[in-house]
Amino acid sequence: MGNLEKLVYSSLCPCKYLEYWPATISGSQHLRGLKLKGSIPVDLCQLESLETLSLSEVEIRHLPESICMLKHLKKLQISNCWVIEQLPEDICGLECLEKLDIWYCTSLRDIPNSICKMKCLKYLSLCGCEKVETLPENFGCLECLEKLHLAKCTSLRDIPNSTCKMKCLKGLDLSYCDQVKKLPEELGSLECLKELYIEGSGISRLPQCIYQLKGLRIIGSREQLESCGFTSLRNTSDCRDYDYCCYYCFYVEV
């Protein structure tokens, strides 16, 4: 493959049967971004300078623990990996990770407790991970988290009370989490919270302290918001690819 010592970004899609890197890639000290589809080479950990890693349609049940050796990784995206059941137990080894973006990993069940030790994490998505039933009790230890995207986690039963410790949280998306029936009573302590999506969830009542969050935008169907006691509703132009009807929002007045 020639001299790739100065390679910064690479996309190997699809590459279903790749087991080992070509020596020219594994020796690259400047590779910052990598996109893989179909397989994960066993010597992935050799790419020590990686900052962004995207994995899609990887057909393995467990992500290799060696991923946790990528000490400079800031963004990890895992999408449409339908057979993955478990994340690495030592995922907290990704100590620089700021964004963990997991989409439609429909067999994923368990979120390791060690995720709560990721002090730099600002964005976490588990969108479409329909078999995830619970989140770690110490979830609130993610004190730098700004956005939590749990849309379509249809087996998720509740939101840990410790979530109320996420003092930097700005956005919470519970769209179509139909098993989630209530929110933590101390949600009003999240002073930075600006967006709360509840459309399609099982939530029919919000904590009274929600009115303390000035400037908060609550998005749901008209019927749902009215059942929560909100009457001054505005049509929202907020559109996402899974929206098939019109949603409304309620603004807590500043």
TrEMBL record:
Membrane-spanning parts: none
Domain Disease resistance R13L4/SHOC-2-like LRR: 69-174
Entry superkingdom: Eukaryota
Example GO BP: intracellular signal transduction
Keywords: Repeat
Pfam families, per database record: LRR_14
Protein name: Leucine-rich repeat domain superfamily
Protein species of origin: Helianthus annuus (Common sunflower)
